[in-house]
């Protein structure tokens, strides 16, 4: 996927998250391990969001691989240490397709 398409998907994801009551804290947080697309909070829980887009849900969600998830976890750890955050958090995905947007909560391997 091109960076331009990724930016469009991330913008749609941010709009969706805000409409669902999430507060956006940061976008495109980088560490030496990787990137977290969007960091949001809702009800005192920090959510690390991976945005994936595709022609359909299955094709997009398959791109959240165990390897990608491991990079997100390491980067989330760095973010929380850097910001002295010791509360509740979770890793979520936002899947953007031509037919809509869907959130996948609490992604695990």
Record keyword descriptors for this entry.
single chain; 109 residues; alpha+beta; Trna Endonuclease, Chain: A, domain 1; 37% strand; globular
Provide an overview of this structure.
It contains 3 helices and 5 strands, in the order H-E-E-E-H-H-E-E. It is of the alpha+beta class and 109 residues long. It has one domain: Trna Endonuclease, Chain: A, domain 1, CATH 3.40.1350. The chain has a 5-stranded mixed beta sheet with strand order 1-2-3-4-5, sandwiched between helices. It is globular and about 40 Å long.
Overall mean confidence score, pLDDT = 93
* CATH topology-level fold name: Trna Endonuclease, Chain: A, domain 1
Quaternary organization: single chain
User: Which strand order do you get reading across the main beta sheet?
Assistant: 1-2-3-4-5
Query: What is the number of beta strands?
Result: 5
Cα-to-Cα separation, first versus last residue: 23 Å
CATH architecture: 3-Layer(aba) Sandwich
**Name of the level-1 CATH class:** Alpha Beta
Assess the beta-strand content as a share of residues: 35-45%
Catalogue the unreliable spans: none
How many distinct helices? 3
Summarize the structure.
The chain has a single domain (3-104), classed as Trna Endonuclease, Chain: A, domain 1 (3-Layer(aba) Sandwich), CATH 3.40.1350.10.
Q: Layout of SSEs?
A:
Layout: H1 3-19, E1 23-30, E2 35-42, E3 45-53, H2 57-61, H3 66-82, E4 88-97, E5 100-104
Parallel strand pairs: 3-4
Antiparallel strand pairs: 1-2, 2-3, 4-5
């Amino acid at each position: 996927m091109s960076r331009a398409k990724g930016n469009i998907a991330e913008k749609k994801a941010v709009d969706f998250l805000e409409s669902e009551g999430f507060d956006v804290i940061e976008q495109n947080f980088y560490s030496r391990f990787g990137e977290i697309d969007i960091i949001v909070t809702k009800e005192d829980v920090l959510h690390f969001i991976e945005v994936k887009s595709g022609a359909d849900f299955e094709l997009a969600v398959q791109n959240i691989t165990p390897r990608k998830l491991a990079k997100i976890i390491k980067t989330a750890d760095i973010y929380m240490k850097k910001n002295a955050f010791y509360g509740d958090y979770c890793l979520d995905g936002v899947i953007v397709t031509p037919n809509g947007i869907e959130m996948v909560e609490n992604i695990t391997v």
